[in-house]
Amino acid sequence: MNLFFNAKKYSALFTCSLFLCFSSFSQASTKNLTESGFKQYVVTLKSEALKKGYDAEFIERAFSKVKFHQRAIKADRSQPEKVETLDTYLPKRVPEWKVQKARAMYKKHLPLLTKIGKKYSVQPRFIVALWGLETNFGKIMGNYNVISALTTLAYEGRREVFFKKQLWASLNILQQGHISIEKMKGSWAGAMGQNQFMPTSFIAYAVDGDGDGKKDIWGNSADVFSSMANYLKREGWNDELTWGRQVKLPVGFDLSLAIPKNTGSRKNWLKAWAKTEKTLAQWQGLGIRRADGTNLPKVDVKAALVFPDDENGRVYLAYNNYKSLMHWNLSYYFVSSVGHLSDRIKFPPIH
């Protein structure tokens, strides 16, 4: 579900939904954060929840074990970052063991994935790639109580409106009975389940994949996979296309034909896409070739040119599905890792 951050900066805790919702970071809060202040803030939230129509008993249960998580604030303010290039990032983000595990999980869940893939018109390999990159195939989902994490970050104040919106959404999820308060665990930022949906993304995209009346993205594979596929489909996925391909530029290529590296927002990025996209035949005419130097495919498809680093790094022609992945996480590096892993799942064929 993401800030258009400098793609050279990588943090393992970046989640798909969190940073899609932020267009910029504000200045660090100067609020004096204390346990007593937090408790008073919870009282205020409960009162606000009551005015919103939530049942008083439900509110008390939802906030009964709420805690002030200083660690969440520390993580939010000082996310571990390391300068990377795509050539150094991909081997760390998509190591060989993860490729092999992804292929094994693809094979293990193929009947279910195939059924879901057909229903939502999304190739299963992309579902598995997202699953592996978000939570290591459901193994690392975060152990924070979501209500506590969201309340803490709302109290911190820099993005109070955003985190309160997530908090109300999480109350709706609890009220609808999809998960218990005790089992509603997530990251320090409130991203939940095996696909790391923020609560508002859960409301928008989560589906009941097996018809049991619950949308359980924490423990139900049918719900996890279906919700991911539904997200991509709702954001324009086309299963007749792949995500993109690495290409080679001719000497003296006009670099202004590519999408600018830092457009500042999703809206501007999409405008740049619309302004610069061309057919593969047009890119072929401009001298662009596959990474191995051979001609581009002769298909009637439009693509945009992106540089995750700069013109001296890897260069990609991005198809429309690239936009769907950039909606999931507005990062060239993230999308490149999803595409790279999905390609490794596809080739060589799994038998």
Write the layout of secondary structure elements.
Blueprint: E1 9-10, H1 35-51, H2 56-62, H3 70-77, E2 82-83, H4 86-93, H5 96-108, H6 110-120, H7 124-135, E3 144-145, H8 146-156, H9 160-175, E4 185-186, H10 199-205, H11 221-234, E5 244-248, H12 266-276, E6 278-279, H13 280-285, E7 289-290, E8 302-306, E9 315-318, H14 320-328, H15 332-346
Antiparallel strand pairs: 1-2, 3-4, 5-7, 5-9, 6-8, 8-9
Helix pairs in contact: 3-8, 4-15, 5-7, 5-15, 6-11, 7-15, 8-9, 9-10
Side-by-side strand order of the widest sheet = 6-8-9-5-7
Strand content: 5-15%
**Helices and strands, in N-to-C order?**
EHHHEHHHHEHHEHHEHEHEEEHH
Report mean pLDDT, rounded to a whole number.
91
Low-confidence stretches: 1-29
Helix content: 40-55%
Global structural class: alpha+beta
The number of strands is 9
Features:
two-stranded antiparallel sheet; about 350 residues; disordered N terminus; alpha+beta
Summarize the structure.
The chain is an alpha+beta fold. It has helices at residues 35-51, 56-62, 70-77, 86-93, 96-108, 110-120, 124-135, 146-156, 160-175, 199-205, 221-234, 266-276, 280-285, 320-328, 332-346, and strands at residues 9-10, 82-83, 144-145, 185-186, 244-248, 278-279, 289-290, 302-306, 315-318. It contains 15 helices and nine strands.
Please explain how this structure is put together.
The protein is α+β, with helices and mostly antiparallel strands and 351 residues long. It has a domain at 244-318. The protein has 15 helices and 9 strands. It has a 5-stranded antiparallel β-sheet. The chain has a two-stranded antiparallel sheet with strand order 1-2. The protein has a two-stranded antiparallel sheet with strand order 3-4. Strand 8 (302-306) and strand 9 form a beta hairpin. Helix 7 (124-135) crosses helix 15. The longest helix is centred in the N-terminal third of the chain and has 17 residues, at 35-51. The two termini are 33 Å apart. The relative contact order is 0.16. The model is unreliable at 1-29 (pLDDT under 50).
